[in-house]
């Protein structure tokens, strides 16, 4: 009874903390749910535990959340003088970019630090850095920015869970090694130094042994891990590569086996095990997700030392509370959610067989994973069945032997071959049919799916049967809803200095993507400056959003002309999404840009070169330009016009004023309600006479913040003002969406939500 009360109280404390840090519909519903459960378990022990534990936790959460809020409100500063400490095992270098966490001297806040390396020798010095370093710098201090596109990864909230609210960009700095005079700090620093040395040694190993060693032994997921091993993420094997209870158990098992061979008394072994756990926690970088396993391992050591056995429910509760003390926002992260959800389920699976346990864990983890990555592979459960025992018996021992024996080339090569066979098998399975694009789950559906999944294998057979039917029906309904939405959208992505627009008709009758964006690089870089792991906006913004909307294919990819900021990420789209047709202006197929950026990635995609008046299947807009074959320059841009959601929409890439005038002359009766302003708002487009003739009500500019061209130009802004148009600009509003049903629609923007109420009717 006491153990059950303790378990429920820990859940109550966790949900109260959730409301304090993020007061929203999700945390409120979860708190109410736990309160309802608590009402069925009221007794004196329960109330006593609530008062004894709940009061200090409540005060701690309130104080910590208040401090975090004050920290987040610190103003941005340019050329600020700062100093702080950097741990060598937290440094990441890609090309000429250095990224790390740094603890500032003045307020002890941790910030994200970014620096540009100026020479190859400086890069090599940082790559081989093994010391704790102190720096003094002139830098720009700023708040970590929120996402500017819908359903984009929220770096601001993610780092807030780690009490990091600001970032610094180094302008100039001096660094030097430091040593601490405090014994405990010396020990901590030394463990981090050894960790950095281990990471540097692992980086020299062949792939995939290098990635596996960094993840499984050193607790550091290298930037190349998921890039080199795409099947790991696709098949949901991420949990195997996160230092967790699995790895702690393995370390303890090895230690106990060695100590038994040496006939060390059990009590002494327990103390040595506890000491090893604490040191391994620091050595692995002190990750919050490891606290649960650390506490559980320490409790297990007390039992070996002769203390009374603690029930597993209480162990889980203590682990949760300990993790919340160390990092109150841990349950806002996917790693924390999976860690505690999976171990919670295991508390009640003693009577289930191996297959039932894995089915339960897969069903429980599905809403957690899909809510953030929007996809789910049907083979994921079956792969986990095989991968978990293979990892325990083959992969982890091979990684340990390969890492320890790296001075013997034969050993390293053999272990790498074994791991490579496993890695290639996982990647191959991930390419098999069955990767479902589910889309973003609403918070309410996620909670229901999660709760129903917990009942799939309860002892009451009728409840279990109803839960299974309900879970399948609910998931099926979600798939139907995301696959066949009743509303349509005309959306302009915020991808910086470039263009990318999505048109999705109701029930997904057609999906059209106009341009893909692409970062234009100015000047050439030396080999050492090139980034190896850069993810483009095409993947992190466009593909991510398409997946969140349940879009698994594109009917028509329109590339208005050959400029890189319009077609640069087309290859990413072609690699990640099935595309039926690519629409390009007549003459573009003969250009070098097409041969380099598009042709190698076409696969089965059909290329259609167009001129004015050509009809394309499943194209919601009409082609009104170009009039003749050209060279895919700005003046040859494809211009599209048509009615979407009761609004006449015109968009034309980088078409110049002469082209706009030619279209106006060709179609004298054309009227425009929503005008996607040409060439990012440049004065070379948006002919005032034509705009006056078209009489648009809404203008949309897609341009990068602080871009070198100063788009949109003052001349264009004056034209907009003269025509009394409502202006939406990705620079200030982020992603812009026109959501519609039949002939009525409403604008929605990611930033400055006061404009989201702008509506249009026909």
Automatic annotation (TrEMBL):
InterPro entries per record: ComA-like_MBL, ComEC_N, Competence_ComEC/Rec2, Competence_DNA_uptake, Metallo-B-lactamas, RibonucZ/Hydroxyglut_hydro
Annotated PROSITE patterns: PROKAR_LIPOPROTEIN
Main location: membrane
TM helices/strands, residue ranges: 28-61, 237-259, 271-295, 315-334, 354-370, 382-404, 441-459, 465-482
Superkingdom classification of source: Bacteria
Keyword Cell membrane: yes
Gene3D superfamilies the UniProt entry points to: Ribonuclease Z/Hydroxyacylglutathione hydrolase-like
Record's subcellular location: Cell membrane
Mode of membrane association: Multi-pass membrane protein
Pfam families for this protein: Competence, Lactamase_B
SUPFAM superfamilies, per database record: Metallo-hydrolase/oxidoreductase (SSF56281)
Protein name as annotated: Late competence protein ComEC, DNA transport
